[in-house]
Amino acid sequence: MSKNAKIAIVDDEVYIRSLLEQTLEDLDGEPEILTAANGAEGLALIERERPQLVFLDMMMPLMNGYEVCAAVRKNPALADVVIVMLTAKGQESDRVRGLEVGAHRFVTKPFDPDEILDLAREILGSS
Amino acid sequence: MIKAEHYLKPAWVRRQFELVLPLLPTGSSAALQLGGKRLEEVNEAGHDLIEGVPGVQAFPLTLEGERVGVLLLCLPAGSKIAQTQAWGGLLAHTLQGMLETEHERHSVARETLESYREMASLQRAVTNLNLSLKPATVVEALLKEFDGRAADYGAVFVCAVDSGNYGLERSFGKDAVQAFSQFKNSFLFVDMAAHELGDIVNDLSSSKLWTGEVPDFRSLLWLPLIAHGEKLGLLVLASRRTEGFSAADLKRAQMLSAVAATALRNAQLYAAEQKMFQSFVMVISTAIDAKSPYTAGHCRRVPEIALMIAETVHHADSDQFAGFVLDEDERNTIEIAAMLHDCGKVVTPEWVVGKANKLDSIANRIHLIALRFEVLRRDALITRYRALADGEGQESVEAIYQERLRQLDDDFAFLQKCNAGGEFVSSEHVRRLESIARQWWTDACGENHPLLTENEIYNLSVQRGTLNPEERKIIEDHAVHTINMLSQISFPRSLRNVTEYAAGHHERMDGKGYPHGLNRDQLSIPARIMVIADIFEALTAPDRPYRQPGTLSWAIDIMHRMKLDNHIDGDLFDLFLSEKVYLTYARKHLAANQIDEVDTSRYLAGREA
Q1: Mean per-residue pLDDT over chain B, rounded
Q2: Fewest C-beta atoms under 10 Å: which of A29, B56, B235, B262?
Q3: Does A1 reside within a domain?
Q4: Nearest in space to B330 (alpha carbons), one of B513, B120, B92, B496
């Protein structure tokens, strides 16, 4: 894992941000973990910090996850940002829509901490 | 383990420093050391900010009575120590308060994450436990949930359906099989087997039922596997330390065991169904074989050849067979289809199945004809004596008599040859049959009859083999009967192709076979394999009524002609030869005198590599 890895968490639920952040603290290499509490803030954070990995909630105020994702994908400078969608909905059409706007993976809430860690290791390890 | 360095964010700490430092003399510096790491430092004066260095004030930070970090302050030389102490104390207090809050929050979050983790693991386990319909796989999946996590040792004992005895089905741990075999001899095991509820034994040495059968076992968790009110087995987990299992472990094990028991029950029921079905198939196939002693073992050997060929096709590199995969379902389908391919023969009269001679009906009627010839021989003898009595010349009488006997013997020999069906019967032969028939014999009632009946002539005139067209139709009908019979069986999805594979074994690649006249493109690969397996078995069978057991080279030569005739699939036949499937089979099933050298290069020559 690269030494200066950055991971962003964009979710309006404070407990999800907190739990995800704590989960990611178990990663080696002490990646920098950044958080944002809504879509607009999240997009600004991603554009500013260019994290390698973003955990992005689908349903958020101001800008939902799809819109943030689509905006990130439109920006060539952010082409390397891997987006993992967080969703409380398991519906297939949501996943399809997420993939269409450029999400790489899906994680359903409540998430499995081990799955999050494996995913982060896989993505950061290969970046 | 407390990871205090994660509790405070450097930015937040810096903000605290920036709030306090202006209150201190200009040139003061501050640093926070947490969990052995320098988290933040504001040190414009370039002080040597290390604990123990003279002039550096240290304010320890603790969590749960343990020191987790230190706040370091350094003021310009000549500053008041009391002031440093007061402001440093306030800053340390703020940091300490935040640390404690964060510690609390992390602990709560850790618990939550643990339950998330548990939930995910249960979800995975429930899925895994229901992945398979094989009892062994279910048991393995159950043990996997504990292996290397909750327990040092684990085992599942399964109750035998008939005897009710427990047998060790699967286990994990160091020398687990031996350990659990010992364990099974303990009174404790007997006691467990008699109970309907599981429990934890925190310290085995305190149990009266335990005499240290396995020294490594110090504590236990055990649960019966119960489904539909029936006890199917026992889950036993063991730990090398006392109190190795908590109430939470028991709860988790209970939940997993309940799911596993249901899955195990389903798997056992499914296995029983499978077994029953297989025994039905076996009954039908042995019935067919038993019906005709001449083809005994055919239904047993054809599946073996068919599977050998299928295995070879599965491993062949050739593109022609790329779509063919011999997985477990396909293997079962082919085996069952091959066992049942002749099931229609149960309705074919056995005198047709085993018709050795043209005049065979229920009996071989050649003996009737032989009797009539005997009548004619005696007629000749009587004629001879009468002529002698009438005073005719002895020499000429004797010559006529001998000529008559010779003619009768010759005719009868001809009939016997016709009857055997080994040679082609030409129209000339038929004319001779008719002329033989025009001799008359007188029965006991004094009535005259032709030497051969219409029906006897009809049967003896069969050009090839022994079967007349009606009988051939009956034989061919067995394929139709096979289809009709198999269509009535509602095969599960995994065996849905049995009928197609079984029904095609008399079809030909050129579409001239029976019963449907399907051609190569209309026949699946397994159906085409079945054609070859059926023919090869029939040609090499040790006992057929119409000929001696054939040699390997003879059988392969005939099959090669069948390939050229577009009767059997050429690609499959080539593979059958090149991979020496015929030889593998022959070595296992044929008599030594049948196995001769087969020059496969003759048949494979000119084939594209």
Answers
A1: 88
A2: A29
A3: no
A4: B496
| Identity of the residue numbered A111 | F
Report, as an integer, the average pLDDT of B170-190.
Answer: 93
ipTM > 0.90, yes or no: no
Q: State the Cα–Cα distance between residues B404 and B48, nearest whole angstrom.
A: 142
Query: Inter-chain contact B120–A25, Cβ cutoff 8 Å?
Result: no
| Whether residue B146 sits in one domain with residue B80 | no
Query: Is B122 part of a structural domain of the chain?
Result: no
Q: Determine, yes or no, domain membership for B351.
A: no
Q: What is the pLDDT of residues B130-145, one digit of tens each?
A: 888 888 999 999 999 8
Q: Is the pLDDT of residue B528 over 80?
A: yes
Q: What is the mean pLDDT of residues A80-100?
A: 80
Comparing C-alpha atoms, which of B71, B49, B52, B76 is closest to residue B60?
A: B71
Number of structural domains chain A divides into: 1
| Residue of A16, A22, A25 for testing the chain B interface, max B β-carbons within 10 Å | A22
Which residue in B105, B106, B113 is closest to A113 by CB distance? B113
pTM score of the predicted model: 0.60
- B143 and B172 in contact (C-beta within 8 Å)? yes
State which residues form the domain around B175.
130-272
| CB-based contact A114 B113, cutoff 8 Å | no
Contacts of B110 in chain A (CB under 8 A): 22
∠ CA B197-B199-B205, nearest 5°, is 135
Distance from CA of A76 to the nearest CA of B (A): 30
Q: Which of A19, A111, A115 lies nearest to residue B109, judging by beta carbons?
A: A19
Are the beta carbons of B109 and A112 separated by less than 8 Å?
no
